[in-house]
């Protein structure tokens, strides 16, 4: 096959690696005209962006991405991997810990079957092992509290012999009422959709309810588009997979444990896009802590009838893409930071999850029987084949 001019400019052995991986797959140079331009542009500059003094910029670029040029694996990823290898392979743990997105990206690319096959044949790119077990935990910093702007102090009146008038009793009473109204409005704005406790505390302030007070609603659940970048069987449990799922977070992929070994072959889990439940309380499963749950459809005939991963729309393949429930009560609501296990919120909502006759994932309100499809801004999430399946 003929290669783009950018490939001819690559140095050895990067050029040979790109040619080997793409030899039987020209689509790796881009599936659309725009993608082809992006891929060629990145190939032309991989030598520059892979330099150690450019790693800070590359780290920022890769933080929200799984692949460098498009939302799927391309020749640009092959070239960047080849350019990074001699640098990354010499780093000590403290050095690659400081660039978690680059490390996550590099490890994902080097593990792809097509890369390993060509790299092993060329004997130029041995596998690089990383000590993820002892990596320091990266915690997302909370947004600093907003400071209330102080009103400018009124200028002191010029000293005269004229006395300054104070408010009349009626004016004073009006000011106090306005102040209480403002305090109540602020409390209500902090908890949208919730009834503020009308009983004032001793200090005169209203007490806002907890975010998860009241009836559980589906919008409390944090659903996002995720991408499996690595999957293996749990070493101590025959029925469990351990997945690394990219959710577009600065801290890198989340470790997720799923009981799908007996229902979905590992080849069908690799590189898979899915919907993840992201605000369950982390739980240990046979010694491995799981930080999310993959959303699956189970056949109406039970597990023996099949289990399938719920799929995001093909035009929403962006890690971390928001997934929500249709309906004015839910579309713009913010999910809880973490579901309280004691309040059984997910367990209360889950019986209403179903796949419709169209295979679309939805929640049916048990009280009103209204249907609320599960979607991204670009389309509705679906099960590959199951109709009438339950979701969990």
UniProtKB/TrEMBL annotation:
SUPFAM superfamilies: GST C-terminal domain-like, Nucleic acid-binding proteins. Keywords: RNA-binding, tRNA-binding. One of its GO terms (cellular component) is methionyl glutamyl tRNA synthetase complex. InterPro entries: Arc1-like_N (IPR053836), Glutathione-S-Trfase_C-like (IPR010987), Glutathione-S-Trfase_C_sf (IPR036282), NA-bd_OB-fold (IPR012340), tRNA-bd_dom (IPR002547), Tyrosine-tRNA_ligase_regulator (IPR051270). Residues 217-324 form the TRNA-binding domain. The keyword Cell cycle does not apply. Residues 139-219 are annotated as: Disordered. It holds the Pfam family tRNA_bind. CDD domains: GST_C_AaRS_like (cd10289), tRNA_bind_EMAP-II_like (cd02799). It comes from the Eukaryota. The keyword tRNA-binding applies. One of its GO terms (molecular function) is tRNA binding. Residues 1-130 form the GST C-terminal domain. This is Nucleic acid-binding protein. The lineage of its organism: Eukaryota, Fungi, Dikarya, Basidiomycota, Agaricomycotina.
